[in-house]
Design brief:
This protein has a six-stranded antiparallel sheet with strand order 1-10-5-12-3-2, covered by helices on one side. It has a three-stranded antiparallel sheet with strand order 4-8-7, with no helix packed on it. It is built from one helix and twelve strands; from the N terminus they run βαβββββββββββ. The chain is globular. By secondary structure, it is mostly beta strands. The protein has a single domain, classed as Sandwich (Jelly Rolls), CATH 2.60.120.370.
Length: 153
Amino acid sequence: MIQDLLIHSHRSENLHPYFPQAFQWLKNFNPNTPDGKYEIIGPDCVAGVQRYQTKPTTEKKWEAHQVFGDIQVVFAGEEYCGHHNVALLQTLEPYSAEKDVAKFVAPTTPSTLLHLYPSQFTIFYPSDAHQPGVQISQPCEVLKVVIKFKLKV
């Protein structure tokens, strides 16, 4: 997992061939863009624009991916996002290749609680189980972009 400010994305752009274009797309993002999927580099690098209400941690599942990584950026609102080593979690729903996701039982050991807010980005890899969309003190409307990038090109 990597977390940094969007203005410092140049520090991470050399980590994957799709990152320069993905971060450029994020820096040019218009908050009036409708919810939906937007290809950046064909189906191997896609931005998902979404608006939603955050929820209590008990209502949000832990997840991890195997084929695609995530770059998550909150453009409005704020949320907590849990982070834990996927190898230490018990599977709740087995991996679905069609959806590229597995769901996990909430950890009983301490995990990292990330505070996601505008101006920063977080990158999740397959070893990073995450629990996005968790409310901080009360439900909050969030505008988020999740870029799915294919790990192997």
